[in-house]
Write the structure tokens for this entry.
Amino acid sequence: PGAQGRVSGAKMGSKKKSKKEKKGKKEKKGKKKDAKKHRKEAPEPEFGARGFIKETDKYDKEGEFRAWLGEVKKLDVESLQKWEEKELFKEYAEDYNTATLPHEKFYNLEKWSREEAARRAREDPTAAAATAAIERESFNDEEERKREIQAERERRDAEYKRETYLRMKSDSGDLENLREQERLKELRKNAYNMGDMETVARVNKILAPDEPDAGR
């Protein structure tokens, strides 16, 4: 009887353990289903939910774009070529329009800065005042730097336009000179055929600087 009791007890214990395992598995499945359901119900970012910007809005979003470049892409706009900057702004605009930028500041830097300053002021008024003074000075320095960069870009553009104009002017002058030489050579040929050696000699003198063998 003792042995039978132990066997019976073992069976009962095994059944209880089996029930607990089944219950645990059901609970896990239920949690997984809830998690999947929650993921499905989570709304996806809508296009234009935070506004819509185009390439022409780059000037208005200069601060946000620079912040995104520095913090997300780890790049400095001054080190970029024009075409690189343009391509990166396209990428920034796409994330902006699809509301997938990683931080609030990249949508509206000024608003975020005000809210952040207000939060710091509530937490520590003295430290907030000192920080605000530093930020104002930094902002002024940044504005001055922007003006210097813009002035340098305008100077380079003006220099490029001037060089292009001079090159085109030079090419035009060369073309006119070539046409004149061809006209004089034709005149010399006709004069030679007519026996007008005086005209031939005069044309040779004109062509001499550009045609070493003009007298031959």
In short: The first helix runs from residue 2 to 41. The radius of gyration is 41 Å. Confidence is low (pLDDT under 50) at residues 212-216. The chain has six helices and no strands.
